Structures are given as structure tokens and as C-alpha cells.
Amino acid sequence: MSDQIEATVARDAPGSYLNADGSFAEGWHARPEYADYGGMDRFRSLPDLVKSYKSLESTLGKRAPQGALVPGADASEEQIAEYRRAIGIPDLPAGYRLRPEALPEGLSWDDVRGSRMAETFHKHNVTPAAAQAIVDDFMQGELQNHKLAKAAYDQLMTSREESLREEWGAGYGKKVGEITKLVSSLGFDPNDAELFGNARVLGFLGKVTGMLSEDAVSSLKGTVAGGTNFASGAEEARAITRDPGHPEHARYMAGDPEVTAKVLRLYGS
How far apart are CA 149 and CA 67, in angstroms? Predict the structure, then answer.
């Protein structure tokens, strides 16, 4: 029966696809090779067919470089591989170069997180350029968060320092000097921001030094508020610039040219 139908279609089909005016010949879509394509009769001319094709291409996705179409849900492994090669997807996640060449101050790069991101990019066919843009945007967000956190921390430390200044009054500088000596004598760096820069810790250490006699504080080794007993000129320079207990620290912070020149001289010694 099917042979009969095919013979009838072949007999009745026009000999040419096009009429003299360029339109499709009547019944052109009835040829056997189009038997599996429904709705072909709606195309009346070649321009109609071209417009439909362009619309379909736009719907399914634009052609990738080298003519690879974006694979659909039923795409074969070879089609997916062809598409990945065409748009430059690396063979392995390690092929992505995500680590920024220069990290903004205050930020660090997490290799473990970077590896996870690369695996996700590779799995979802993200191009290297798009992956780098995503990472750059992520780092900008991290930088903004870092700045906000630092501003909040600085504000908190300023507030706590003001409360200590109010509590200790004119003896603030001496008290900080005693704390500095205590911290140094215990083997800690008085310039450690997490320790010496925390006003709550200063308050605690202030109470500790307050429980010690003056002789006991004087006998402590380390940085001395009077500005002596430094292991090197650079160490004394750091104390002047960073140690509020140093007698020349306030003048340095105020921009005193004599103290500034001394610091430069000490660093060069």
C-alpha cells in the first residue's frame, strides 16, 4: 500500500520546485523526501523559507564560532564536544586561569574556592572570558565588603580608644607605654594589630598593669616608654611611628620635622 502511495506522489509531484516568477510550484512539498515534514505547504516562496529558517535559528540559539550550534537537551556527546571546542572551553577545569594577576590590598586568593569555581564553569560550558569576568566581578564585591568591614572596625576602634582616653585621662600615654612593655616582655609584638590595636584588649591590659607596682612595670623588658633599650635604630623608628607610649610618637603624628628626620635617620642606620 505504501509503495502505491509513493508512486502516486511521485507521479503527481511537479517536475520543478519553482515557478517562473520564483514562487514555489504547487504541491512541491508533496515529494517523498518531505513526507516527514509537516506544514511545508505554508511556504509559498524561497524568501518565506529563508525567513522561517532565520527565525528558527534565532530561537534555538545563534551559531557559535566555526559553525557549531548551541546543543539542545537531546544533543549527542559529539555535538556537545564540537560546541565546547568551538567556543574555547578548556579540556580540564585547570585550564581556566582565574587567579587575578594583581590582588587588591587586603584581599587574598583562595585556591580551593578557585578550583570549585573552575569546575562549575567547566561543567556548564562557560567560556574563559566569561569566567574571568565573573571572577573579576566577584573580587570587586569582596573588595567592597572588605572596605566596609574595615571602616566599621576602624570606627569601633576609634570609639573604644576615645573611651580609654577618657578613662585614663592625662595618663593615657604612660598607660599605653606600660602595656607595650608588658606585651613585649611576654614575647608578643606590640605592633600586632589584632592584639595591641584592639581597644578592649588594651583596657584589659591596662587593668593588669594597674595591679602591678611601678617597680614591677619598670623591671619589664622590651620597649620602654622613655625610648631606650631598642635592639636597632629601625626598631626605635617603628616605636616612634607606631607606639602611642613613646614620648615622641605624638610629635611624629603631628608632623614634627625634627622627629620625622630622626625616624628617617634611624631607619637608615
Answer: 49
Three-state secondary-structure class, residue 70: coil
Query: What CA–CA distance (Å, rounded) separates 40 from 60?
Result: 19
Task: Please choose, from the candidates 5, 13, 74, 17, the residue with its C-alpha nearest in 3D space to the C-alpha of residue 48.
Answer: 17
Q: Is the pLDDT of residue 99 over 90?
A: no
Question: What is the C-alpha to C-alpha distance for residues 9 and 76, in angstroms, rounded to an integer?
Answer: 34
Give the residue from 103, 133, 144, 97 showing the smallest Cα distance to 118.
97
227 neighbors 239 (Cβ within 8 angstroms): yes
Distance, in Å, from the CA atom of 231 to the CA atom of 217, rounded to the nearest integer, reads 20
pLDDT of residue 229: 58
95-116 CB burial, b ≥16 within 10 A, e <16: ebebeeeeeeeeeeeeeeebee
Nearest to 182 by CA among 244, 146, 224: 224
The pLDDT of residue 15 is: 52
pTM, two decimals, is 0.44
The separation between CA 134 and the C-alpha centre of its own chain, rounded to angstroms, equals 8
All structural domains of the chain with their residue ranges: 2-60, 225-269
Phi and psi at residue 226, to the nearest 5°: -75, -10
Dist. CA 89–CA 191, nearest whole Å = 48
Per-residue pLDDT at 137 exceeds 80 = yes
Query: How crowded is the C-beta side of 81, counted as CA atoms within 13 Å?
Result: 4
Of residues 45 and 121, the one with the higher pLDDT is 121
- Which residue carries 608578643 as its cell? 188
